[in-house]
Amino acid sequence: MDFDNNIPIYVQIIDYIKGNLVKEEINAGEKLMSVREMSEKLKVNPNTVQRAYQELEREEITFTKRGKGTFVTEDNNMLIRLKRELSKEIINSFISNMKELGFNKEEIVSIISEELKGRDHDE
């Protein structure tokens, strides 16, 4: 994983885990790697991973079983909300970038429609 120097590493770890949840590479109820394993995998300080895990637990995305590790919530509604939140962030970023390029709402909708039609032929 390549880290962006402009964003705290623990935030990037949170986003990485959330992304894997949304893509279902990590499933509801699944145990996350231990702090030590994750820190070795990502080549970061264990305290950084611990901070990310604590924030995920605060957001009720994960929970800790004493002596057993950190697990993903089994609350499917929470995971659906997470997926929607992440999609809104992507959409808002896209819209902001398009407006900075000078596109108006109608042009943005038209471009998206054209792209989606083109992808229908590809699939």
UniProtKB/TrEMBL annotation:
<keyword id="KW-0238">DNA-binding</keyword>
<dbReference type="InterPro" id="IPR036390">
    <property type="entry name" value="WH_DNA-bd_sf"/>
</dbReference>
<dbReference type="GO" id="GO:0003700">
    <property type="term" value="F:DNA-binding transcription factor activity"/>
</dbReference>
<protein>
    <submittedName>
        <fullName>GntR family transcriptional regulator</fullName>
    </submittedName>
</protein>
<feature type="domain" description="HTH gntR-type">
    <location>
        <begin position="7"/>
        <end position="75"/>
    </location>
</feature>
<dbReference type="InterPro" id="IPR000524">
    <property type="entry name" value="Tscrpt_reg_HTH_GntR"/>
</dbReference>
<keyword id="KW-0804">Transcription</keyword>
<dbReference type="InterPro" id="IPR036388">
    <property type="entry name" value="WH-like_DNA-bd_sf"/>
</dbReference>
<keyword id="KW-0805">Transcription regulation</keyword>
<dbReference type="Pfam" id="PF00392">
    <property type="entry name" value="GntR"/>
</dbReference>
<dbReference type="GO" id="GO:0003677">
    <property type="term" value="F:DNA binding"/>
</dbReference>
